[in-house]
Amino acid sequence: MVGAGLIGSAVAWQLTQAGAEVLVLDAGRAGAAWKAGAGMLSPRESALQARRWSRTRRPA
To answer: Among 22, 27, 18, 16, which Cα is nearest to 5's?
Structure first.
């Protein structure tokens, strides 16, 4: 998992609860955006990310 903000930490915790072995990496820089955003997900960025992801998906 890259990023130990609210969402990265929550996903890592859920994965460990499901039995996965998880390594969380975080730069730990002072003044990082996660401190200001507190796990906020931007609707616009989420929509853009979903479009990017769907273009890169390949059928199984």
So the answer is: 27
